[in-house]
C-alpha cells in the first residue's frame, strides 16, 4: 500500500498517484511542487531497480505514469507571457544513445511555462543534430539531458563538434539528468550543471 505520492510513484501505483495529485491540486498545492514530488518518486523507483527490487517493465510503467502526470499538470504551468518576439530560445535534447525523455520533457515544460521558446530535438540526439539545431534556430541556450553514465562520450562529442563548428561562443550550454554532475560539466567545458529543471531555468534566465 502506498502512503504518499512519492511512494506511489516508486511503486507504480497509478490510481493512487492520480487521486493524490487531484487532492493536492484541490488543496491549492502548485503543479511545480507536485512535479518535484513525482520526480523524487521516480528516483526512488530507480533505486528499487538498482537493488533488484524493480525491473525494466516497472521502469517503463513508471515512465508511462509520469507522462500521464505531466499531461495533467502541463496546462497548469503554461505561461501567460505570449510575446513571442521577446522570447529567448532554448534547444534541448537527450544525448546520443540515451532515450530517457521524462526529465527533458519536464525541463522543456518548465522553460516553456516561463516564456522561453523551446525547440525540443527529442532523444538520442547526435552531435550533428545539435549543430544543425544551433545553426537553424540560433538559440540563447542549449540544454543536454544525460541519464546514462555510458553516454558521457556523447556529451563530450557534442561539445567537441560545437567547438569545431565555431559555434561555442554563440550559445550558453547546460546539462542535467541523473548521470550529469558539476564535475563532468566542468571537464566537458559546459557552462552549467542543473540539478533540477528549475535550477536550469533560474540560471538560463540570468545568464543567457
Ligand atoms: C524511467 C526510467 C527508464 C525508462 C525511461 C522511460 C522514458 N520515457 O524516459 C526506460 C524503461 C525506457 C529505461 C531504460 C533504461 N534505463 Co533507465 N531509468 C529510468 C528511471 C527509473 C527514471 C528516470 C526518470 O524519468 N526520472 C524522473 C525525471 C524527472 O528525472 P531526471 O531525468 O533526472 O530529470 C530531472 C533533472 O535531472 C533535470 N534534468 C534532466 N535533464 C535535464 C536537462 C537540462 C538541460 C536541465 C536544465 C535539467 C534536466 O530536470 C528534471 C526535473 O527536475 C532512472 C532512475 C534515475 N535515478 O533517474 C533509470 C536509470 C536512468 N536507467 C538506467 C538504466 C541502466 C537503463 C537501461 C540501460 C536499462 C537496460 N538494461 O536496458 C535502459 C537504457 C535505455 C537507453 N538507451 O536510454 C540507470 C542508469 C545507470 C547509469 N549509471 O547509467 C538508472 C539510473 C536506474 C538505476 N538506478 O540503475 N529507463
Which SSEs are present, and which pair or pack?
Elements: H1 5-10, H2 14-26, H3 31-50, H4 56-73, E1 89-94, H5 102-113, E2 117-120, H6 127-137, E3 141-145, H7 152-164, E4 172-176, H8 182-188, E5 192-194, H9 197-207
Parallel strand pairs: 1-2, 1-3, 3-4, 4-5
Helix pairs in contact: 3-4, 5-9, 6-7
Bound molecules: cobalamin (B12).
Cobalamin is lined by residues 39, 42-43, 45-46, 49-50, 56, 59-60, 62-63, 66, 92, 97-104, 106-107, 143-145, 147-150, 174, 176-179, 194, 196-197, 200.
* Number of extended strands: 5
CATH level 1 class label of the largest domain:
Alpha Beta
Q: Kindly state the mean pLDDT as a whole number?
A: 92
What sort of overall outline do the alpha carbons produce when their principal axes are compared? globular
Structural class: alpha/beta
- Provide the gyration radius in Å: 17 Å
Order of helices and strands: HHHHEHEHEHEHEH
Provide the number of structural domains.
Answer: 2
Segments where pLDDT lies below 50 for 5+ residues? none
The name of the CATH architecture of the largest domain is: 3-Layer(aba) Sandwich
* Ions, cofactors and other bound molecules: cobalamin
Tally of helical segments: 9
Provide the spatial order of strands within the biggest beta sheet.
Answer: 2-1-3-4-5
Helix content: 40-55%
CATH superfamily annotation of the largest domain: Cobalamin-binding domain
Major beta-sheet overview? 5 strands, parallel
What is CATH's topology name of the largest domain?
Rossmann fold
